[in-house]
């Protein structure tokens, strides 16, 4: 991998760590077509993916993705065998659904488990770009590519960065308390010292 690309990928993954809490080993959820494309290009996933994400990785695949590969016939039998080497990621589907649908449901609206997605499905990747905080990987002409952070991801990063400059709940409570104390002090100052009772100041009759 070229040094310039390494720097770009390292900076991207650092952003995901800082903004969304990604940690190594990075969990990569693969679809069947990505596995098949890797075989076609003689890519050894357990070597190339850590060097792409600039850190240790863990490869996962769902039963739905394996079932989809099986449904494609004998030409994909090698990918089925290769998929079994990856850790199985459980999904909620008793009857298999498409790999894309399965991954969409796992990622949901905010990628709660901090998965990276490795997919050759252009439509799936297009959909996932609308979800903040999803690193996307695909193979392009035998090169494993980490996509730049999407617009939705960049917007979310900017929001989170802005939020860091604002006071948190504890600070707001402290500021509210101090403001009330200052207001009470100002009220007392306007009233001035308590004047003595005029009757008590009269001279006693002889």
Automatic annotation (TrEMBL):
Any GO BP: rRNA processing
Chain intervals with Basic and acidic residues compositional bias: 159-174
Gene3D superfamilies attached to this UniProt entry: 5'-nuclease (3.40.50.1010)
GO cellular component, one term: small-subunit processome
Domain UTP23 sensor motif region: 187-206
Compartments where found: Nucleus, Nucleolus
Location of the region described as Disordered in the Swiss-Prot/TrEMBL record: 157-206
Transmembrane segments: none
Stored Pfam families: Fcf1 (PF04900), UTP23_sensor (PF24779)
Keywords: Nucleus, Ribosome biogenesis, rRNA processing
Family label: Belongs to the UTP23/FCF1 family. UTP23 subfamily.
Purpose of the protein: Involved in rRNA-processing and ribosome biogenesis.
Name the UniProt record assigns to this protein: U three protein 23
Source organism of the structure: Umbelopsis ramanniana AG
């Amino acid at each position: 991998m070229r040094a310039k690309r390494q720097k770009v990928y390292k900076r991207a993954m650092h952003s995901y760590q800082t903004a969304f809490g990604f940690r190594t080993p990075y969990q990569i959820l693969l679809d069947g077509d990505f596995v098949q494309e890797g075989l076609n290009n003689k890519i050894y996933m357990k070597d190339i993916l850590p060097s792409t994400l600039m850190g240790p990785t863990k490869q996962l695949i769902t039963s739905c993705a394996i079932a989809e590969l099986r449904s494609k016939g004998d030409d994909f039998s090698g990918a089925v065998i290769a998929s079994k080497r990856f850790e199985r990621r459980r999904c909620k589907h008793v009857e298999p659904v498409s790999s894309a649908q399965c991954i969409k449901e796992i990622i949901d609206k905010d990628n709660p488990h901090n998965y990276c997605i490795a997919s050759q499905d252009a439509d799936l990747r297009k959909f996932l770009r609308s979800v903040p905080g999803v690193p996307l990987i695909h193979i392009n002409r035998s090169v494993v590519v980490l996509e730049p952070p999407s617009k939705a991801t960049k917007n979310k990063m900017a929001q989170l960065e802005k939020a860091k400059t604002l006071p948190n709940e504890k600070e707001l409570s402290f500021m509210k308390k101090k403001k009330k104390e200052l207001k009470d002090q100002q009220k007392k100052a306007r009233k001035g010292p308590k004047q003595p009772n005029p009757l008590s100041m009269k001279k006693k009759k002889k």
